[in-house]
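Handout, section 3.2

Students often ask what a structure token actually looks like in practice. Rather than define it abstractly, here is a full record for Peptidase S8/S53 domain-containing protein. The first block is the sequence as you would receive it.
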Amino acid sequence: MNTIRNLACVLVSVFSIQIGWSQTTTTSISKNWHHENRNTTQVWGVSTLDAYQWLKKENVNLKPIIVAVIDGDLDVNHEDLKMKLWQNPNANNKHYPNANHGWNYLGTKDGQLITKVGTESFREYKRLRPKYEGKKRENFTKAEDLKEFEYFLAVKADSKIQGYLNFFPYIKLTYEAYALTDSLLALTSSNHNAIPLKEVGSLKNADTTAQQYIDAAVRSSYKFADTTSWGTIFDFQKSEYLTAVKRIESLNNTSNPRDSIGDKQDNIKDKYYGNSQLVDSSSYHGTFVAGLIGAARNNGIGIDGIAENALLMGIRAVPDGDEFDKDVALAIRFAVDHGANIINMSFGKYFSPHSKWVTDAMQYALKKNVLVVQAAGNDAKDLDVVTKYPEAPSVIKKKQDSYLMVGASTRTGSRAKFSNFGSKNVHLFAPGDKVTSTMTANEYGTASGTSFSAPIVSGIGAVVWGAYPKLKAYEVADIIKSSALRNTTSELEGQAIVPGTANLLDALKIAKDYVGK
């Protein structure tokens, strides 16, 4: 999920429900802008409120739609989500014990959680390092060896390990300068961490070497404002140093935090592992995604999700770091086999050693009449040029593809500056800039990222499908794309297959005409 560390691009604010803002007041439009109707407010939301009024007028009752959230967490105790959870009718299955609301592929049998892992590029670099480090292209005569060597060079560059190796002597020396300066400051004040940088620069020491270290520390702090506290600066530098040490020391250590799960990581058939724990207090991402899809509507608290008929299935497979292909592939299959109608995937990366496992699983989902919605990513990259994983599955039948890649749009209908794009590989856009949703521990927050555009589209899909349950998954996808076609902007031209933003009200009207044919 490196790209979606990325994927939760910017966390703007976090607030408790006690702070109070109403779902129904006009002052909440900035937080709820993704629900607005551009025709009445000039804000490019998805017309949620008008869509529900239209459903009432049409006397349409929504059927339940199961939406699987493959992510890093799901707070099943959240006040705005706990009544919207999918209930597993076979929760005592021997392979998935106590899987009441989903499954955790990043957990051990004794209930522990795997939270932080490295990037895929660094994991791959370590795997291939013994074979290829120090070699040159001319050392290889076989095409397959040369291809793997080129891959090795790519993951090495992406991991940035060479920078750590080249500059570690400087990083170490700089940290020593900071550490000495910190010790000297501690002698001058009982609260030396609060001393602003501009005062640190005036610190003098009779020892020439010590003074050189102090001056070096101050010079290296050029990126900080003069008013920044010393404690903030020193903590940052210490973190940088310890990260470099950890990276270098781990080069000869082939283990990773996920090893404690105990499965055979290179065997996709070894699939029964993990636990039922979905709550991760160190993460908010999946809970945020779930809220956008289906937080309880009109309950007088928190926020309103898009789909009042959504039943949320949580599948934990995305750590802090890059997800493992095996976990993602099995998470997709779990969702399909347990009745999910829609799968939301707000994650991604640029290296995938077992990508076929994932694309095969996605293909399985499409064949089983499941709509798969994926976030485009937050690196402002052209996905027609750069491959992002999971990679789009091949179309089952011409014009019958139930897969959507979603970029992020702003309240003015333009592409969010961080959003990936692609006239051939991104299908459409949806609100993803400064949107508000649920967070862990009954909190709410505002954040940006394509991670949050995808669940808005998943929510639209759930409402449309719930209103017209005889539709096929590919038809729901086509209807959502058609809704974006009614909401195009010149600023999105060439940025996606459909250069527009998804719209729930238009999608429902299109669906009505579609089923009436």
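Discussion prompt for tutorial groups: The longest helix spans residues 161-188. How would you have guessed this from the sequence alone?
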